[in-house]
Amino acid sequence: MIYQLLSNVRYPLVQSVIQKNMDGKIFINKNCKKVLIINNLNWVYVIGDDIDKEFDKEIIYILTENNKGNYIWFGMTKYWEELIRDILKGPIEYFPRLEWNFDNNIFNKTKITYEKYVVEKIEKNNINKVCGGIKNSITDFWFTKENFLDNGFGYYVEHDKKIVGLIISAGIYHDEVEIDIIVDSQYQKQGLGKLLSVTFIENCLKKNSIPKWDCYKYNEGSVKLAKSLGFKVINEYPCNIVKL
After folding, report:
1. Could you give the percent of the chain with pLDDT greater than 70?
2. In the prediction, which pLDDT does 1 show?
3. DSSP label at 187?
4. How do beta strands 162-173 and 176-183 pair?
5. pLDDT for 137
6. Domain for residue 242, yes or no?
7. Residue 14 to residues 9, 158, 240: CA-CA distances in angstroms?
8. Can you give the CATH number for the domain in which 205 is found?
9. Residues 125 and 198 in one domain
10. Residues ≥6 apart with Cβ < 8 Å to 87
11. In degrees rounded to 5, what are phi and psi of residue 230?
């Protein structure tokens, strides 16, 4: 029963909690028909259609007690929106996200030549430098550096002894690889994002893995980059920010 529920989870960054690649917590109700998953980034997903008032109120209590800021809630239903507003009285912001499908035929036509920057693979001998040089998404997503080195992969760009770009596997579920990318604000709009992405996707294809792109609907830079790499929007799904 639990396996069937968890197998329906479709968000790689939540699936990573199930696979223990990412730190988080899983709560299950008494009849094993409802599951709450929270990762260490405060991303929330509830799966199971039946209404269990006791467990549902317990979920609200858990979120309140463990609050470290706002929550990002994937796939929030009308029922949960009304329940949260009724109990917590706090604001809920709509944060629609886009799910993309990768088209290898379009990607194969992507040409990029860049002599100014060199892309380096993240390895044991440089991971401390990478984590200390830019937003540390590696341990956000993988809990420890060792876990990332054993199960994930990524690349970085360094300029004038400064890490200016980073791309990693934010989550890996079966043969799907979720992409997380960050470029220093002073180095944006120079093609670094595309350079890192092409290198990363080529590695995915060598591993017979499927690159996965997911982003906020109104993130113009991410949307434009995804399209240029051969990704096509296949779904818009609800995502909400719950402010406690």
Report:
1. 92
2. 54
3. G
4. antiparallel
5. 82
6. no
7. 7, 30, 15
8. 3.40.630.30
9. yes
10. 57, 60
11. 105, 15
Mean pLDDT of the chain, nearest integer: 87
**Are 67 and 137 in a shared domain?**
no
- 155 and 88, same domain (yes or no): no
Classify residue 228 by burial, with Cβ atoms within 10 Å: 0-12, 13-18, 19+: middle
Integer Cα distance of 212 and 180 in angstroms: 10
Look up the domain containing 66 and give its range. 2-98
66 plus 149 within the same structural domain: no
**pTM of the full structure:** 0.85
Residue type, 75: G
Q: What is the pLDDT of residues 207-240, one digit of tens each?
A: 999 999 999 999 999 999 999 999 999 999 888 9
With 0-12 / 13-18 / 19 or more C-beta atoms within 10 angstroms meaning exposed / middle / buried, residue 13 is buried
**Residue 5 or residue 187, greater confidence:** 187
Q: Which two tokens stand for residue 101?
A: 């499908």
